[in-house]
Write a structure and sequence with these properties.
Length: 123
């Protein structure tokens, strides 16, 4: 598999930040004659309304996870995802990031996922 993924971020230094990513991937598998290409995109808006709290919303369309990519599933991985999250930065340089995602997959299944990350920063 090969993927090219340019990322654009616009942060005017105020409360708002916009991120956009486009991914073009091409997959080939041993024993399978055809190569498969796919396009994915992500738009994420972040609002830094308070000193230590950021809120974000996101929309994504394309392959839901390259970790699940297999030859027989290449054509059925398309999905649409909406997500929302909050990041809280503590005075101790620890951040707690919580994200909820709702995903509609091309095989008519749906997925809800809640992710909680603890990130420790250093000075």
């Amino acid at each position: 598999m090969a993927a090219v993924s340019p990322l654009f971020s616009w942060d005017p230094g105020g409360q708002w930040r916009l991120d956009a990513r486009f991914t073009r991937s091409r997959s080939t598998f041993p024993g399978v004659a055809d190569a498969t290409g796919d396009n994915s995109m992500l738009l994420r808006e972040t609002w830094r309304g308070w000193r230590r709290v950021w809120l974000n919303v996101a929309y994504a369309n394309g392959i839901e996870s390259f970790e699940d990519l297999t030859a027989e599933r290449v054509a059925s991985l398309a999905s649409t995802t909406v997500a929302g999250g909050v990041k809280v930065t503590m005075p101790s340089l620890t951040s707690v990031i919580t994200t909820w995602e709702h995903q509609w997959r091309s095989n008519d299944s749906r997925l809800d996922r809640l992710t909680v990350l603890l990130v420790q920063g250093f000075r």
